[in-house]
Specification:
This protein is an alpha/beta fold. The protein is 47% helix and 12% strand. Bound molecules: adenosine-5'-triphosphate and magnesium ion.
Length: 285
């Protein structure tokens, strides 16, 4: 399976209009992918256990998407088998008053995982080059004039790239997913939030308001992805009309990173290892 076609590391350009959001790769039906997803989740589980025991490298997984693209479901489905002690999920909503008084990376930095753990960001500091760009939010914030000119978003792309390099150089792998759905599929998903009582709680009027800015968001995503894709921290653009296929790709890609990191259970110091048989005898006595 060639995952490379979904990976953007700065060489090829991401063109959102040419991207097939309904792609299902080599599969015709969901059932063909389902057992593979389960096997990959099990492999992830083994690897995460080692990552946690080893404490050597942390993983930050970012999910960005238009509303109702399946971020929540993907997180629930793909990461549900992992040891909860080693995983934290953070939702990035509209910034609080306190958060707005700080630089935009402040609230993210507080949740960057310690080495050994996995942190999942449901939205992230990328909102500050997405919704902030679409609505020019920086203009209405209390900021010095030099932080409000037209180059603010361009500068943030560079800041984010530098920040991700900083994380990489400090033992954190950042994996960035953009779940890319079509406008039609979003309509279907939003209607379900209205029609299905168990999904009513997910519905927000802002989903309808923001949908009016669909084209602006598409441009903002395309620009953000092209500007912040690097070899050490690529973007993965995931076709998300078929949720099962996006889950298949997400688990494959996370697994690929875990295999690269190749965590191992820590080896005991030789003198401790020698003592093991003594301790066994003590316990059995
Ligand atoms: P879903 O995709 O299921 O609709 P969601 O991630 O949109 O879930 P919501 O609680 O509906 O969750 O919305 C969170 C909102 O917070 C989003 O509209 C997002 O754009 C907004 N948000 C996040 N970060 C920022 C930010 N830095 N500045 C302004 N708005 C932000
Ligand atoms: Mg929403």
């Amino acid at each position: 399976m060639d995952l490379k076609q979904y990976e953007f590391s700065g060489e090829k350009k991401f063109e959102i209009k040419k991207f097939n959001t309904a792609d299902t790769g080599k599969f015709k039906e969901r059932s063909e992918a389902e057992t593979i997803i389960q096997d990959d989740i099990n492999l992830m589980k083994d690897s995460q256990d080692k990552l946690y025991s080893e404490n050597r490298e942390g993983i930050l997984i970012i999910f960005q998407a238009m509303d109702a693209a399946g971020k929540d479901g993907a997180i629930k489905h793909v990461f549900s088998g992992l040891n909860p002690q080693g995983v934290d999920v953070f939702n990035f909503k509209q910034p609080t008053d306190e958060e707005l008084k700080h630089d935009y990376l402040w609230r993210a930095q507080r949740h960057v995982p310690q080495r050994g753990k996995i942190a999942i960001f449901n939205r992230s500091y990328y909102e500050d080059v997405l919704v902030a760009k679409v609505h020019k939010l920086y203009l209405s914030q209390v900021l010095p004039d030099r932080c409000k000119d037209d180059s603010v978003i361009e500068k943030r792309y560079t800041q984010i790239k530098n920040y991700e390099q900083y994380l990489w150089e400090n033992g954190i792998t950042v994996i960035k997913f953009f779940l890319n759905i079509s406008k039609d599929e979003q309509k279907k998903q939003l209607l379900q939030r209205i029609d299905d009582q168990s999904k009513n709680w997910k519905f927000s009027q802002s989903d309808i308001e923001e949908r009016k800015y669909w084209d602006d968001y598409q441009d903002a995503y395309e620009a953000a992805i092209n500007e912040t894709s690097t070899p050490i921290c690529p973007w993965y653009v995931i076709p998300a009309d078929k949720k099962w296929y996006s889950r298949y790709l997400i688990s494959k890609i996370v697994l690929q990173h875990l295999q690269r990191i190749n965590p191992q259970y820590p080896k005991l110091a030789p003198e401790v290892e020698q003592s093991l048989s003594e301790w066994r005898k003590t316990l059995l006595a």
